[in-house]
Design brief:
Radius of gyration: 39 Å
Structural class: mainly beta
Number of helices: 4
Largest sheet: 6 strands, mixed
Oligomer: single chain
Strand content: 25-35%
Helix content: under 10%
Number of strands: 30
Length: 411
């Protein structure tokens, strides 16, 4: 690169200076190739700029200034550099570490940051063993649904964070435990299909606080039959309405083709279909003016205390709705076999009792958007598809042991 006489050129540094010469715009000429190297700095000196100079005759470095329209070589230097750092450890777990008595529908969440704000992904480890096994990898969300949990279990979980520079930070192992014994007011797990139902204690009774949604949807033009399969109608044949308002069932399908009042029917284990009397017990708990033998609209405000408040599901004005009972009645409408029609979504809710009134009819309850009372009626078992609520079987709360006695030796 340099002419033969290259004074004191030892090349002790990895910075390799070559002699690129220069270009003068005013003369439109190139000069000094192989004999001289000139490199601009980015610093001005008045109207001109500073540069550095090396040639084949001198071992020193020259510092000069020259016209900015000269063509000199350019070298670059790296800016301040700090190696990329791994993510910070995951923190702020929800549920908190060592939390107890949590419901079966517990959701996981956490926070995690990165020193350089690199995008992060996460692996989720979760289970009843420590260390917990991996259940999800490479997710960007800081939440996780581990599914329906078991009563009385201890769960362990941790988060592993990854940035986009192949760095990994493994978080601490957190733990929590679930309730050891189910109690009314907690979510009820239906083991048949994994669905969860809210529950509510009203007086001496424990009710589902949602409409039942068990079974296989059939078209509104079909009949529910005694074929060993729980069948349901969904409003206008849309599964989304079953998810929102529950299924609609003929009385016989609900009863599993029995006529015994209070039978389990299509309810989960340890729950049953409410009788006409049990419906009245619920009503009188909320409105003492109701008499069990009366029919049509009755009482004063029992219906309002049962209905979900507001107009998210109910049509305005949703008269008297406070849901002070926690029953959260929704207007799921009904299905009529005659003509295969669906009616009254957002306007009325219809619920069966398990009590017959003759061979072709059964007692039911009805709530409406423009009324705060409860409607008691008899309806056809064979053409009406109504909503279903279940009530818990009689339950004796577990008691602690008796006080020890009959000590030997005696006191």
């Amino acid at each position: 690169f340099w002419v033969a006489q290259n004074s004191s050129a030892l090349q002790n540094f990895r910075y390799f200076f070559t002699n690129g010469g220069l270009y003068r715009q005013t003369l439109n000429s190139f000069s000094f190739l192989h004999s001289t190297g000139l490199w601009w700095s980015s610093s001005e000196n008045g109207s001109i700029a500073n540069y550095r100079y090396l040639d084949y005759l001198h071992p020193q470095i020259g510092r000069f200034s020259d016209q900015k329209n000269y063509g000199y070589s350019v070298r670059c230097v790296q800016g301040s550099y700090s190696p990329n750092q791994p993510p910070n450890p995951p923190s702020d777990p929800t549920p908190p570490d060592n939390a107890t008595n949590l419901p079966l529908s517990t959701q996981l969440s956490w926070t995690c940051t990165d020193p350089e704000n690199d995008p992060l992904t996460y692996d989720v480890c979760f289970g009843t063993t420590n260390p917990p096994p991996s259940i999800a990898t490479g997710q960007s969300a800081t939440t996780c649904d581990p599914g329906i949990l078991d009563n009385g279990a201890t769960y362990y979980w941790k988060i592993v964070a990854h940035d986009d520079h192949s760095h990994t930070t493994e978080g601490a192992v957190w733990s929590f435990s679930t309730l050891s014994e189910w109690a009314c007011g907690l979510d009820l797990l239906d083991n048949r299909d994994g669905q969860l139902y809210s529950t509510v204690q009203i007086g001496s009774q424990c009710w589902m606080a949602e409409n039942l949604n068990i079974g296989t949807m059939i078209n509104g033009t079909s009949y529910q039959t005694n074929n060993g399969i729980i069948e349901k109608y969904c409003y206008i044949n849309s599964p989304a309405y079953c998810d929102e308002y529950g299924g609609l069932y003929w009385w016989n399908e609900m009863m599993e083709y029995s006529a015994i009042p209070g039978i389990q029917g299509i309810c989960p284990d340890s729950w049953h279909l409410p009788t006409d009397t049990e419906w009245c017990t619920l009503e009188q708990e909320l409105d003492s003016t109701i008499t069990c033998s009366s029919t049509s609209w009755r009482g004063v405000d029992g219906g309002g205390k049962l209905k979900e408040a507001g107009t998210t599901h109910w049509q305005s004005p949703n008269t008297g709705a406070t849901n002070s009972s926690g029953f959260t009645a929704l207007p799921g409408g009904l299905h009529m076999t005659v003509g295969s029609n669906f009616f009254d979504l957002t306007k009325k809710g219809y619920w069966w009792s398990s009590s017959e009134s003759g061979s072709a009819e059964a007692w039911s309850r009805r709530l409406g958007y423009s009324n705060a009372q409860v409607y008691r009626n008899i309806d056809s078992k064979y053409i009406c598809g109504f909503s279903v609520r279940c009530v818990q079987d009689s339950f004796q709360q577990n008691q602690p042991p008796n006080i020890p006695e009959n000590s030997i030796p005696s006191k």
